[in-house]
Amino acid sequence: MIRIAVDRKQVEEFCQRHGILRLALFGSALRGDLGPESDIDLLVEFEPGRTPGLFGIARLERELSVLFGGRRVDLRTPEDLSRYFREDVLREAEVQYEEG
What is the pLDDT of residues 38-88, one digit of tens each? Predict the structure, then answer.
């Protein structure tokens, strides 16, 4: 299993700068099957009125990629997730940052 080292302070600064209330890890990084080519799945919740559009999300993914060791980042909001597995993801996600 590959572990991802991330600077929590940098993640906190990133989230505060972009109006993120909560950022959580889910997917292969938590299941233990993260491979060398795996992306990082992150669940994000924004402050009201701060949710970026498609191009804004792409910019955030590129910036997060640097923080997560150059791996591709897939950023999702709870609303983006399929209703078939949304509750599982929300329950199992590992919080990396939470405002407050």
Answer: 899 999 999 999 999 999 999 999 999 999 989 999 999 999 999 999 999
* CATH number belonging to domain 8-98: 3.30.460.10
How is the chain split into domains, by residue range? Answer: 8-98
- Burial label for 12, CB within 10 Å (0-12, 13-18, 19+), is middle
Calpha distance 94→61 (Å, rounded) = 18
Phi, psi of 26 (to 5 degrees): -150, 175
Cβ atoms 2, 71 nearer than 8 A: no
Q: Which of 41, 74, 80, 88 is catalytic?
A: 41
Pairwise CA distance, residues 42 & 22, whole Å: 10
Active site residue 80: no
Note if 41 is an active site residue: yes
